Amino acid sequence: MIGEETQQEQTAHSNTRRRHMFTIVGLMGIVCLALLLTVGGLYLFPAGNHTQSAPTPTPTPSPSQAQLTATAMASHHLFIDDFTDKNTYKDWFTGSTQDYERQIGQQGLSLTALNHKVLIESLPPSRNFDDFQLTTEFTFQQGDADDSIGIYLRGDGNLDHDYRIDIHGNTTYSIVKESWDTKTQSAHNDYLVPNKVSPHLHPMGSKNTLTVSLQGSSLSLILNGSQVEQIEDASYAKGQIALFVHNGATSSQARALFSKVVVDPLPPIATPTP
């Protein structure tokens, strides 16, 4: 009997251990299944609304080649002098004779022509310019209708061949093409724009701003912010730039103050492809 009871106890104990093992295995299976479902859910259903695509960034437009060229040109002057610092004067020719007076100071370059002469002041250093934009601030300080001040453009070494912009003492302007007649050994003036009254010119003693652009055969003239001329002439492609003051026949002197001179590059006109 004792043996049978012992055998029965061992059998019951063995069954109990099996039930415990089955229970543990079942619990482990449930845990593993839960882990698999959780990890799979992370891959299949990421956090957030997976049906919404990320917004497409708006591209920043790249500057055009024309804008880049304009920026590059604006940052590099071919010539500039505003006369505010004596240490930056550009080696202008100064000095006086019985016919001329040239003085330079922080107010600008003062040019006076006497004895019915023409005083010419080339931009230093002497060089040739082709396509460019020139801006100068000037004050016609003294003179009459026969006197003038202005600029030579694309001139040769002797300024025998050039374009000339005249600002006259009676508040008019003109544009002249100069050339040298080898037969008569004399200068010839071809008026591209004859003397013209302009409301955009300030009177004697007042400051004016003149801007002239030469690009290929095109010449544009702006007075105090208003374009007054746009002409075409292909006679001269490049040359020097010079300021001038002309004392005519009816006054004792003509005097002008140039307070700023700036020359900026312009891109050459593109040749069309045939």
Note the overall shape: globular
- H and E order: HHEEEEEEEEEEEEEEE
Outline the biggest β-sheet.
9 strands, antiparallel
The total of beta strands comes to 15
Poorly predicted ranges (pLDDT <50, ≥5 residues)?
1-27, 31-69
Q: What amount of the residues lies in strands?
A: 35-45%
Amino-to-carboxy terminus distance: 124 Å
Radius of gyration, in Å, reads: 44 Å
The average pLDDT value, as a whole number, equals 81
Give the helix tally.
2
The helix-and-strand class reads alpha+beta
Share of helical residues: 10-25%
Walk me through this protein's architecture.
With 274 residues, the protein is an alpha+beta fold. 19% of the residues lie in helices and 41% in strands. The protein is built from 2 helices and 15 strands. The protein has helices spanning 2-44, 65-74, and strands at residues 79-81, 95-96, 100-105, 108-114, 118-122, 132-142, 148-155, 162-168, 172-181, 186-197, 207-215, 218-223, 226-232, 240-246, 253-265. Strands 1, 2, 3, 4, 6, 11, 12, 13 and 15 form a 9-stranded antiparallel sheet that branches. A hairpin with a 2-residue loop joins strand 11 and strand 12. It is globular, with a radius of gyration of 44 Å. The termini are far apart.
Concise account of the structure shown:
This protein is an alpha+beta fold. It has helices spanning 2-44, 65-74; strands at residues 79-81, 95-96, 100-105, 108-114, 118-122, 132-142, 148-155, 162-168, 172-181, 186-197, 207-215, 218-223, 226-232, 240-246, 253-265.
